[in-house]
## 1
Amino acid sequence: MFLQRCITPDCRAEYKLDERLYVCSRCGGLLEIDRAEDIAVDSASLRELWRTRRLSSAASDRSGVWRFREFLPFDENVQLVSLGEGNTPLYDAPRSAGYCRLPQLKLKHQGCNPTGSFKDTGMTTAVTQARKLGARVVVCASTGNTSASLAAYAARADLLCAIIVPSGQVSHAKLAQALDYGAKVLEIEGNFDSCMNAIRELAQHDSVYLVNSINPFRIEGQKTIAFELVEQLEWRVPDHLVVPGGNLGNSSAIGKGFRELFNSGLIDRQPKITVVQAVGAAPFARFYSQHDSSFANEEHPKTLASAIKIGAPVSWQKAWRAVRETGGSVITATEQEIADAKAMIGRDGIGCEPASATTVAGIRKLVGDGIIKGDETVVAVLTGHLLKDTDYVMKYHSQDLIAPDGERIASTFGNPVNRVNPVESILDMITE
Ligand code: F0G
């Protein structure tokens, strides 16, 4: 009952689920998974079924992705590749809320997934599909998190894995994960976009299966972030949902999730989806602000938020649809704003990586501009864990963080390590 369909409006070519494609073979457009026909959903019993599955000990019920399998394009008897992904916390963040001049703000922490980022929610479905298709080698290009996640899921599935990363631009924590999980790590000179070009060429080869977010089976898993979120909110839809944007797979996926929930009658409206990019890597924000023009890539993306240092986002058309349909927006945050927002999220006892903090930086601006009102409900999606990039954190707190343009980032909320000597002075220091 599911199929693959081209998203280009005047093409809409259809393909079976087991056709190994990444783009439409007729027009080169992006593909998405769709149902062959609409199905009637009994909202109350489906919500109850999903709730009771949380008490089960079966792997398919424990996973925060597979728990929603009525909306996933797999048969009941498919052999899952799962690490117990999803089920991530939705935190109240009062300090970050105050920083944004809001009475309340909720943070959906996708960094609490098994490999520390939201990628796991999509990797479980993509690697399950890879095994179903009989692939031997799975590959991706990455700024670090996709590769860490793929390496782990490939290890679980006993598949060979190769990742292509931009040399010297991936945090050690992310690289360490891929190495430990046994992936072949290949560095190339250039940026993420050059890696993506290389991998798309490689994926022409029959023995290789590509699992970047251009692969529609990745998007299917990631869309369940929307399902889990509204379930945690007792099926009340927030007014705004804010998400970082890099390659634009995640905003596309969350948009698809909300659209499907809405079309099935499980929710009665959709949140406004806003995507935030780092100011030096913001082709989508530029497109949004001049949206009568065509999409132009950013040749030399620059940001310390290395996860989203991307100039040619593959899924921009899907993300654009999510923003347009929900009445959201696309904005940017400066390096200073990202760094300060990240430290503020930290003060709530919640650790995220720089890319994730674009959300709180963006929300602060949207409130300042009157686009988010004080009485509206807002959820930010934190995409990666603080431990993914500790180098950045240490530099921020010791006034040593230098932006790509050479400017030093002010440690507005800096909390440097203190050397104490003699020991008697410790009490003075902690009570001052
Ligand atoms: N946040 C983090 C922590 C990420 O790792 C990424 C993307 C994004 C946000 C942006 O998500 O690409 O779906 O718009 N990381 C990819 C990677 C590119 O290779 O790990 P997106």
## 2
Amino acid sequence: MHTLAIDIGGTKIALGLVTDGKLIERAQIPTPRAQSAAQFAQVILTCAEQWLPKIDNIGVSTTGLVTKGGISAINPDTLAFPSPFPLAQALESLTNKPVAMLNDAQAAAWYEFVRLETPVKNMAFITVSTGVGGGIIIDGKLHQGGAGLAGHIGHISIDSQGPQCGCGQTGCVEVIASGTAIKKASDAEFTPPISNIDLFEQADSNPVAETIISHSAQAIATLCCNLKATLDLDVIVLGGGVGLAKGYLDRVRKAIQTRPSAFQIPVTEAIGNYDACLLGAAYQFKE
Ligand code: BMX
Ligand code: ZN
């Protein structure tokens, strides 16, 4: 089976040809500005043109809340779609292939759950990237909730005096810990501005860089402990560009170790690495 996998993030779209569960070829484009779903779908399909003749189906994982009507942004600062954005329908009518769509972190959660080295029943996947997303597995099943919102743990508020989040709440994990939040904090400190990659590289020798990264990791540790308290999970899997950056997982683990033992939880690295959401997109066609 050949699947066109599409992972739509706030910054980039990753595409891949997945054959029998393996990522055979990969491409990437910056996320285009969305005018209409048909135009957005066309940009993606043009990039995947060489694979289209052989694909059987299309699996999409996307940032945002996924409902039957389309994609809606919970935090429009992350990705401003006119909502609901009927992308699955547009892809289907342009290709005549079956399209399956899930929230990006929910898709990755299921992929990571099936691949856990030590099988468990209750798990969460957290991606720390442009935003902070999540997917929750309860009793061996992906929990999407009544409206598909389950797992939007980046919008758990952890500081009532904190900064305003694009979702309308105050002090969300996302507005404190995401790659976007890190960049904002870094831009306020460094002139000329540096990339998040450079910030991580400087962390060993520059206490300002270290403070910014630790602040994010502490918020993710709080999120992990809150999830442990709420759902008594067995493990949390961490992914995303920031989540997988050198030393980030260690910082989260160390911060968790300082919390009361009842709320401590093991955190592991995504086996799908930077492609967890992309592989999760294709994995929807697996039983
Ligand atoms: C936001 C939200 C989530 C998403 C998460 C990670 C939007 C558009 N997205 O919290 O649905 O899972 O970001 O998204 O509201 P990413 O773009 O960082 O991968
Ligand atoms: Zn929020």
